[in-house]
Every structure is written in structure tokens, then in C-alpha cells.
Amino acid sequence: MSSPQLPPGTHVPVLVGSLPGRQQSSQFLPPPPPPEDVAEANNHYRRPRPVMATGYGTSDAALPPTGQTGKLPHEALTEHSALLGHADTHGDLSAEEAGSTRRLLKELGSLSRLASPVVMAFLLQKSIDITSVFSLGHLGAQELAASALGTMFIAVTGWSVALGMATALDTLASQAYTASPDPRMLGIYLQRAILVLMLMAVPIAGLWWYADSVLVMLGQEPELSALSGLFIRWSMFSLVPYVGFECIKRYLQAQGIMHAGTYILMITSPLNVLTNYLLVWWPPISLGFIGAPIATSCTHWLNLLLGVLFVRYVDGSRCWGGWSREALRDWGPFIRLGLAGVAFVCGEWWAFEVVALAAGYLGTVPLAAQSIILTTASFTYMIPAGVSIAACNRIGNELGLRHANRAKLAAYSALLLALIISTFNTTFLILLKDRWGYLFNSDPEVVALVGTLLPIAALFQVGDVFGGVGGGILRGIGQQHIGAYLTIVSYYFISLPLGLYLTFSLDMGLAGLWWGLCLALFIVAIGEVRVIMRADWQEEVERCATRISGDASATVYDEEAYIA
């Protein structure tokens, strides 16, 4: 296949520096532009570019991907020609074609295929924390309570904040992958994400170090707080690898590589079970209580190591151009999107923890029923969570390609998939409401209460699924702040006060708390769907172009900026 020729006078900035052992060559590139031509070169890179079959939005002037010296993207990367789920990525669809049933069903299938490995990865990753609680539960009731309290503290103060800030990478990476003149811009965003999240990890680690004192201040028993604090301090070793692995997953997902996290977790999750057994129970090396957080930390470090090796040796390296000082610049867009994401994610996460704490005041049976229902809701949410990741990256890629109608089609298909999932989840819970509780507990009172509350939890699924998928669509277009506003208003100004009033003033018990959660989720879901249905997709394309081209390092690369 012959390569298209560069237009006369076109200059291409040369990227130097890479991971060790990576090939770099500029023999196929013209010399860098002299200083007086930089403005002209910038204008060239900002012009709309013909779309290649790879899914990149690269022009004929694009750099050869790293490790594919001398080849243009559409020659070197044909293995990803169906990245966006359709082979004919030569241009946008017409409004009529985008609205056809055939296109809708085709897009539905593409989203389902992209989401399935992500759902599996979520389930496997959730098993890592659950394994620690199970392994310590056999040491005694105090150890079980301490590990459960410690796990909740870690999730509320650490994981929720990190995942919220990482939503900025969801938006920027998926859009930059197809909108930037050079796909290696994605690597710059990865580096920025790592740097920002590592800086955030410093105050989080400080909070974790003094967690026992914080828990006592919150009214927990001193003995339980001390044991939980020990669990949390040893979990500090998980903070860096957890953040790093989350960033790498998003870097790969933006390229359409959805299966990487699944493959890695299929290796590390079983090893986590084994490591927990060895460090908690096996006499020769048993460490007792602290063995569980140490085992979990080892698992997170292994996740990070395998993630790096996957990028280096398996797939995803074409978007890595080496460590660069460019990553130290232009943090503003990332931080703005990230803080909105923190409010979005933490707002909902913390509200559920408030409900869990409130349930503790109702007695042992309601608390047990709350644990069962919340665990059930967490697992059923894994499906829409996977769809939200797929939809976010799908829409971001299409906006980067300036495909307004394809982005709209992807969003509407995701909402249709949400309808299918919510119908399935609701039907499943209603049919099994009288028997579901026995999977977790044999106490007749607990099982009866679970059966009474599951119809509410079934209705809850509709709002939960649409809210989760809608949130993914908003991340894809870079509108996290809308989800943040909806979440804060619906939970903290409406549903939590109402739920607490129904529970403790009207004596509705646990049902009052769950009716409050239902209301919040429906408000969020309706608000998100309304925003999506009223979106001007051509305007979103222009916002995407402005967001990416406005980044100085997205247009001209300084070869002296690359340091490794």
C-alpha cells in the first residue's frame, strides 16, 4: 500500500525519547520547521483532517506511531481498524442514517461488546477488597468489624476521590486519541493524570496515617478504631499502585483496548486469594490481622506491574512517546474536569455510606438486611458501570473525529442499552425477592425484611442504571459538572433529608432510607437524560476541538521536552 505524500512545505515536529528499547527514527520525516514557520505549522495541524480507517483522526502529516517507523497510522495500525465498532470510519453519518433502526442495533451490539470485558474487570476488582474482609472474618468478630470499617474509610477518603479525579482522563484521553494531530498526545494526558493523582495521594496518605484518631473523633470505640487504623495504615502501600493502574486502564480504554484490565485481574484476583491465605493463615509466614492489607497491597502492585508490561509488550504503546516535561504544563483543563468528577463520584458514594451508617441505628436485623441489599445493588451496578465506560470512550472518540451524528447515535444506543439492563435487573430482583436473602443469611427475620425491601431495590435499578450510563455519556462529552450538580442537589438537599425523616420520624424503618435513595437516583437519571436528549452534538464537536487544540502540547511538540 503506498503512503500518501505530505503536502509541499508541510513540516512535522519530531518526537524524540521513548521507553527503553523503543525504536525511534526521523529518517522519513522532513526537518522541523524554522521558528518563523511555527505559526503556519500550527494552523496546518488545527485544520480538519481526513479520517483514516484506524479510528485516529490523523492527517497525512501525522507522525508514524512509535515502534512503526516509516508507516502512516492507517498502514501501521490496521489491527485497530474496527476500534470504533464500525469499519467504515471515513466520515460522519447523515442525520437520517444515524436515526435508522439498523444503525441503532449495530451500535447497540458494538457497545455491548466493548462493555462486556469492563464488567468482568469490575467484578474481579471488587473481589480484591471482599477477599480481605472474608479472610479476616474468620479471625474473630472484632477483626471483621475493624476490616469492614477500615475498608469503608479507605473507599470514602481514597478510592472515591481518586476515581472521581480520574474521570478527567476518561474525557481527555478518549477525545485526544482521535482529535489530536499525534496519538501520542494520549501519553501526555496519562502522565498528567499520574502526576495530579500522585499529588492528591499525599494528603490522603496523611489522613490514613491518623485514621484511628479520626475514627475516635467520629464516635467509634477506641479499641475498634485502633484496629481499623492499623488496617488503614498498612493499606497505604496500595495507594500508589491503585492510582497508577486506574490511569493505565483509562489510557488503554481510550484506545478501545477494553480487555486489558480483565486479563490482568484474571491473573491477580486468584493470586490475591492465595496471598491472603498465606499471609493471614499459613503458619510459616502468617502475619495475622495485618496480613490482609499487605496481601491486598501486593495485589495492587502486581496489577500496576502487569499494566505497564501490557502496554510495553502487548498493546497500547503506539500512544506513548516517552516521559515529557509537557506533562507539567496545562493542568487547568484536567483539574477542572477532575474536580467536577470528584464531586460527581464522591457525592453519590458518600450518600450511600451515610445511609449505611443510619441503618446501624435501626438494630441488628435491619443492618443485616441493609448489607445484603447494598451488596446486591453493588453487583447489579457492575453492568451499567461497564456500559458507562464503553459509552464514554466511544462518544469521546467520535467527537474527536468530528462525527456529531455518530456520537449522538452512540449516546442514544447507550440509553437503549440502559433500558434493557434496567428491565432485566428489575425483573430478576422481583422474581427472586422471597428467596434471595437465603443466599446471604439463614435468619428468617432478615430474609423476610430483604424480601419486603427488594421491590424497592428493583425500582431503584431503573434510576441506578440510567444514572450510571448517563454519567458515562456526560463524561464522554466533558460535562461532569452537570452530573455533579444533579448529584449534590438530589442527594444532600432532597433524598437524604427525606429518607432520614421517613425512617426516624415516620417510623418507616429501612424502607424510608431506600425510598430516599430511589428518589435521588431518579432525579439524577431524569436530569442526565434530559441534558443528553437536548444536547447540540455539533456544538459538542466544536467544544472537543477547542479543548484538545487549546492544549499547547497538542499542536507542536518540542523535542527538548522529552526526557526519557
Automatic annotation (TrEMBL):
Keywords: Membrane, Transmembrane, Transmembrane helix. One of its GO terms (biological process) is xenobiotic detoxification by transmembrane export across the plasma membrane. The keyword S-adenosyl-L-methionine does not apply. It is a multi-pass membrane protein. InterPro entries: MATE_euk (IPR045069), MATE_fam (IPR002528). The chain crosses the membrane at residues 148-169, 189-211, 231-248, 260-282, 294-314, 334-352, 372-392, 412-432, 452-474, 486-506, 512-533. Residues 1-71 are annotated as: Disordered. GO terms for molecular function: antiporter activity; xenobiotic transmembrane transporter activity. PANTHER family: MULTIDRUG RESISTANCE PROTEIN (PTHR11206). This is Mate-domain-containing protein. It comes from Thamnocephalis sphaerospora.
